[in-house]
Amino acid sequence: MPGHGLHAYAMTSLAIYAARRVALAVPLLLGMSVLVFALIRLVPGDPAVVILGYKATPEAIRALRESFHLDEPVIEQYLRWLGGVARGDFGLDFRQNEPIGQMIRERLPVTLELTLLATVCAAALGVPLGLLGGGRRGGPADRAALALGLVGISIPDFWLGIMLILLLSLGAGLLPSSGFVPLAESAGENLLHLALPAVTLALNRAAVLGRLTRAAVLDTVHRDYVSYARAKGLGERAILARHVLPNAAIPLVTVLGLQVGYMLGGAVVVEMIFALPGVGRMTLDAVLERNYPVVQSAVLTIGAMFLLVNLLTDILCGAVDPRVRRG
User: What's the confidence (pLDDT) of residue 1?
Assistant: First the structure.
């Protein structure tokens, strides 16, 4: 029975912690909506002029502005848009006059799949690299891991994507340089088309994760319980797997959650380079067209997913380590 009481207390504490994090996310999301709405209107250019062209008559421009409520005060425009978002209605695209919610639903799976593959690649590259370097501090493996991490952090996504296209696609002909094949049509072709974009998006984040893993391992490897395990005769691999990595997991999970959010934002550039029909590319096209509703809704969607990932990360850390909940 005492064990049952402790378990119930832990679950209650975790539920309270999760509720606090959710309550904190609501004003953040609201503030994000204000920021997005205001910043897009600082971009020079009139959407009506961009749509109709510079030879359009003032009457046509005025009529178009009235039809999209662009002639109203900014506060009224924001409240109108926010009310629609609260009802699940993101409005209509200025260009195609299509429901923006449907456009996002069609393109969001591409961005999510790209982010998921990039996350797997980043973890598969970064964590072993950090373990290798932290477990053999000062050795050749550690120096190689540090050098690779420095290179990975220094290379911009757009440059890496272009180089991969030139070398592996146009040069060697190993992988497609652009386009997208849905997973439902062909799983193999889907992975082939997403291989280069996923690696491009993952390399910088893998370098960050590798350096953090190395730091966490170095912080843990000199603890008393690790020295005790080594005195018992356990091998270095077993010590890393059983004692070091589990105790270094909290900062790794936290940073990995942040990196997932950064990859959602970085998908804008990568999707443009590889011509992927995702939310990122749609957002960039909408910025160039001064398509206010699309930019607002797409950026808010990406921001909401960022907050959701970090919320789940915080809750997971709170479930693993009670000290996080108390903090």
Answer: 44
Q: What is the CATH number of the domain that holds 273?
A: 1.10.3720.10
CA–CA distance, 272 with 279 (Å, rounded to integer): 10
Non-local (6+) Cβ contacts of 242 within 8 A are 229, 234
Could you tell me how many residues make up the chain?
Answer: 327
The model's pTM is 0.79
Count CA atoms within 13 Å of residue 274 on its CB side: 36
Task: Give the Cα separation of 165 and 178 in Å (integer).
Answer: 9
Q: Which tens digit of pLDDT belongs to each residue from 195-240?
A: 999 999 888 888 888 888 887 777 777 777 767 677 777 776 777 7
Q: Is the dihedral of CA 51, 53, 58, 59 positive or negative?
A: negative
pLDDT in tens, 24-58: 878 888 888 888 888 877 777 777 777 777 777 88
Backbone angles phi, psi at 99, to 5 degrees: -65, 125
Range of the domain at 199: 2-42+91-326
Q: Can you tell me the distance from the alpha carbon of 121 to that of 66, in angstroms, rounded to the nearest whole number?
A: 48
pLDDT computed for residue 7 by the predictor: 55
**Rounded Cα–Cα distance for residues 211 and 136 (Å):** 14
Tell me: pLDDT of 90 over 60.
yes
Separation CA 141–CA 210 (nearest Å) = 13
What is the C-alpha separation between 247 and 221, in angstroms, rounded?
10
Structural domains of the chain, count? 1
State the DSSP code for 223. S
